[in-house]
Design goal:
The structure is a single chain. By secondary structure, the chain is mainly α. It has one domain. It has helices at residues 3-9, 11-19, 25-40, 46-73, 95-108, 110-120, 122-139, 151-172, 177-200, 202-208, 213-217, 219-242, 257-269, 273-300. Helix 3 packs parallel to helix 14 (273-300). The protein is globular, with a radius of gyration of 19 Å. 47% of the residues are buried.
């Protein structure tokens, strides 16, 4: 959607654009896996699972608004962009309003978050506080993580290990090593979403002095990083089945392998913003499909 179309669509469409709904599968995927593992361990609880989903979705929207606002403040979006329209830089929404709504969304996440603290205790308070700090520090603050090559690591940690582990802990009131292993698996695919984002924005980020990992290691290595992340995600269920951690049901996510192969072929040959925009959305869908299949496998595992 270009700026003219965004202006014509009205304020509601501008806020939807700012929320970047195509990234929301990254919030849903780890919660689904954490809930699936809790079910497998006879610890599933619907209310904490739904609260964890609400927190994840709100934090994802908050991160998207924070990136939009802080990148504008730091001048990252001053030049031509190949990605979706940024509502702050394009003038669709005033910067102060974006900032206020960003803070309101993070504040709103405290409501389901406090319920999770009530049922799960202080460990979930620490996890929630760390997630909000990391969300703000990703693009903002004196040392933005994304501008120093740390974005990939923190996405892997918080959208993988923390999100799956936290969802599981909220229901089981304990942490399982399997939750961390499955969190790492999901985290690989969600990090791949960020790799596409940073590969698309590499030139504008470099010009603005934003040193994402893609800027640091270059285009060719970033494409290889994507391939390794996706391939690694599909390797984990095979290893778990081979060593007997789960039965053959854990191989169910391999049904999505044709989609993964298509994305790998695309990252090898794609160039330009539009192709990478489509790949970003496709990778987010892949992460969600993979995670839902993995969750179903955990539920069906005897």
């Amino acid at each position: 959607m270009n700026q003219a179309l965004s202006n014509a669509a009205g304020p509601a469409a501008a806020w939807i654009l700012a929320a970047r709904p195509k990234t929301l599968p990254a919030a849903i995927a780890p919660v689904a896996v954490g809930a699936g593992l809790a079910f497998a361990h006879h610890r599933f609880a619907a209310a904490p699972a739904l609260a964890a989903l609400a927190v994840a979705l709100l934090l994802q929207v908050g991160v998207n608004l924070a990136n939009d606002y802080f990148d504008y403040v730091k001048g990252v979006d001053a030049g031509r962009r190949d990605g979706p329209v940024r509502v702050t830089q394009s003038g669709l929404i005033p910067p102060q309003r974006v900032k206020n709504v960003m803070l309101a969304v993070f504040g709103l996440s405290l409501l389901p978050g406090l319920y999770l603290v009530h049922v799960g205790g202080w460990p979930l308070f620490i996890i929630g506080a760390a997630a909000i700090v990391a969300a703000l520090a990703y693009s903002g603050g004196p040392y933005p993580l994304a501008s120093h090559g740390l974005g990939d690591l923190f996405v892997f940690l918080f959208f993988g290990l923390v999100a799956v582990g936290g969802t599981y802990y909220a229901q089981a009131r304990a942490l399982s090593s399997l939750a961390l292993a499955l969190g790492a698996d999901v985290g690989l695919l969600i990090t791949a979403i960020l790799v596409v984002n940073n590969l698309r924005d590499m030139e504008t980020d470099r010009a603005a002095g934003k040193r994402t990992l893609a800027v640091i290691i270059g285009e060719r290595a970033s494409r290889m990083e994507y391939i390794l992340l996706v391939a690694g995600a599909y390797t984990v269920p095979i290893i778990m089945a081979a060593v007997g951690v789960f039965c053959a049901w854990v191989l169910l996510p391999l049904l999505s392998a044709p989609l993964a192969w298509r994305q790998i072929r695309t990252i090898q040959h794609s160039s330009g913003g539009p192709a990478l925009n489509r790949l970003l959305a496709a990778t987010a869908r892949l992460a969600l499909v993979f995670s839902l299949l993995l969750s179903i496998a955990l539920i069906l595992d005897p």
